[in-house]
Fold this protein.
Amino acid sequence: MGGVLARIGTPASPPKPRGKSPGWETGQPRQRRITYPIVRKRTSKLRKQTAKSA
């Protein structure tokens, strides 16, 4: 049985390479990310109350 399995192979996919990714090459120029201005929530203005007549 072992000879048959060795001849057929396995349905499992081969192992993938692991380890640290290469990342940026040394000496490669990089740009700083763009900083956008902060968008603040607007506070709603108070409505003027009209004087009620009695």
Q: What stands out?
A: The mean pLDDT is 82. The helical segments are 2-8.
